[in-house]
Amino acid sequence: MSWWDLMVDVLDVVMPLKRWKCSMRNLQLRFENECCPVWIGARCVDDVIFKLCELDASSYHVVTDKTVSRLHASGLFERIAAKAPARLWVADDGESTKSIGMVEHLAQEMVRAGIDRRGAIVAVGGGVIGNLAGLTAALLFRGIRLVHVPTTLIAAADSVASLKQAVNLPQGKNLLGCFHTPTSILIDLNFLQTLPVAQMRSGMCEMIKNALTVATENIPLLEDGLKPAANYSNAELMSIVEAGLLAKQKIMVGDKCERGQAIVFEYGHTVGHAIELAANGRVPHGEAVGLGMIVAAEVAGRLGRLSEVDVQLHHRLLKRNGLTALLPPGVTVAAAMALLRMDNKRGYVSASPDQVAMILLAGPGIPCGPADRPLTLVDLSLVQSCIEAHLTGGANVALEESRL
Ligand SMILES: NC(=O)c1ccc[n+]([C@@H]2O[C@H](COP(=O)([O-])OP(=O)(O)OC[C@H]3O[C@@H](n4cnc5c(N)ncnc54)[C@H](O)[C@@H]3O)[C@@H](O)[C@H]2O)c1
């Protein structure tokens, strides 16, 4: 034992409260030439506060939504405010909060409250709050520090590991945005324990997507570990979140702007985004992506690219996650098809008006098309036919009829 270790141990006995021991685990995320530390733990609010104070920001601006404010963010804010100048900004829940009007409103309020270049924005919430706070942090003074404290599974295991910060336009999701690297990501898994089942399942849909596209080694774990009731312990969440972040890292390390190989993470999103927007906030993001993956698998199957075994793997994993393969109530095929034409991957490849660029798989971990931009042009009529056959109860009805 070195003299330093000895001194530290003696200090622990004499003054146990004076020295801080962080109980969180540390991962480093790399985005080409940039990196961002992730600290993960459970029941570790003290550590989260400690890590925030280490930033020595001139002021802390906690951005959250109403639900998360009530459950977690107000408490966290009080703790920060006891140590440093801080403000709490509470937005409405839901996708409609992701608007440029809201970004401008927040920025104006923060400037009125005295934020300067040494200030830090702390996003406490799900992917919506992460994107709203992220874009605000990217634009204020042309970029100030952003810390993510994710409280949904999607945010903790997926969206925080992306530099994309965007808001929606009425014409489509995430059409207005930029890239901004967070200063750090602080995860208390215990915050996720208050998530409704639907939100936990939504996050697991993104985990399934990452396993099918880039982290096939996680498929057996999902086959065994998925729970339709989505009641995961903190220890299970630790494995799930770490696996999610590492899956993203595999590709993000070499494609930080997600314009090349990392487009694969948009798997299921072409149809998924259209369904999510058509449902107007009534369906969680990941669930919409899950429905989008079913359509993508069926399209690839019909084109002879994906085997029936692998199409069924999609259905099996998503069903084990409690997903029902049906368009959400009130969402028509026509509405989804109209929004699909506004997909934000338009322009990557030149498509005719009756085509859409999709990510398709030739097998788990094998995207179709060029490796540096895995997009395939698909006829809209084929997409529509697969939605009708597999998301409107048509497939189930056919199955029932064949049993008669
Ligand atoms: N930047 C990216 O690369 C990226 C990746 C994936 C998703 N996203 C975006 O993220 C958004 C979806 O994120 P989301 O699913 O986290 O949605 P969300 O932020 O809307 O959260 C879902 C709901 O859960 C509630 N909630 C959050 N934490 C909670 C908790 N701990 N307990 C109880 N309720 C809680 C919220 O109030 C909200 O009502 C979409 O807008 C999507 O575009 C971005």
From TrEMBL:
Residue intervals of the 3-dehydroquinate synthase C-terminal domain: 203-345
Transmembrane region(s): 120-141
Domain 3-dehydroquinate synthase N-terminal residues, every copy: 91-201
Cofactor(s) the protein needs: Co(2+); NAD(+)
GO molecular function: 3-dehydroquinate synthase activity; metal ion binding
Pfam families (alphabetical): DHQ_synthase, DHQS_C
Keyword field contains NAD: yes
Keywords from the UniProt entry: Membrane, Metal-binding, NAD, Transmembrane, Transmembrane helix
PANTHER family (alphabetical): 3-DEHYDROQUINATE SYNTHASE (PTHR43622)
Name under which the protein is recorded: Uncharacterized protein
Organism from which the protein derives: Trinickia soli
